[in-house]
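Database export, one record per block. Field names are fixed; values are copied verbatim from the stored entry.
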Amino acid sequence: MKKFISIILVLVIALSVFAACGQKTDGKEDLVMATNAAFPPYEFKEGDKIVGIDAEIAAAIADKLGMNLVIEDVDFGAVLTGVAEGKYDMGMAGITVTEDRKKTMDFSDTYATGIQVIIVKDGSPITSLDDIFEFNADGDPVALKNPDIKVGVQENTTGDIYSSSAITGWGFNDLNEDESVKTDRVVRYKTGAEAVSALKSDKVDCVIIDNEPAKSFVATNEGIHILEGENEYAVEDYAICVKKGDSELLTKINKALADLKADGTVDKIVNKYIPKDGGAQ
């Protein structure tokens, strides 16, 4: 009897491992995408459904590949680590390609451009970058006008990365010679919405986040606005990340993405959520 039970246990474990390695839905292999569904209009929830630019482009890619898209909603940092560790097939969450991220994962061709902007409360003394930084003759920041400034960001995003650098690198922190943080003026939140809430309750002086989510937050929260004019904090490209070395999947994604760009599908999806007149739905 013990031997029989042992055999059954081995079979159960083997079947479990097999199922985990090749999940299928409706006869199609699953394409598991990790995202952080708190980043409108790229990904957000309508009821229990995750929608947005990234969700629709991912669905179109899965369709091209003859696969079934499965979306996992996790913290932004878990998107990056999960993909790097092979827990998810790919990540789409308004992800910017950076040199540090390229060390642990590979990226697809670009499918959208993002702009980091600054959100402040109405009546804020911050009306432009000139109210934040002291600039030298070359136009580079050399000091903060207000050393007590607090900046809200969504953790692990490029807004966090840029803001956490040295003041001379357009960040807000004083760093030691070994680049460790000496004075941390950046307050990190799980989501952009939490950062905006902190701004409204005067816990931070401004929020740095991507332009399109910023427009959505401003549209749904009274008393805040985006700095206008020549006050873009950074311009960056969005791409899909996959586990480093997974060239087979990356090649397939890039081919599908190229086809979807060529037939106008990507533009159609982006324009659905970001009308060409600059407004956000």
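Remark 1: Confidence is low (pLDDT under 50) at residues 1-21, 277-281.
Remark 2: The radius of gyration is 22 Å.
End of record.
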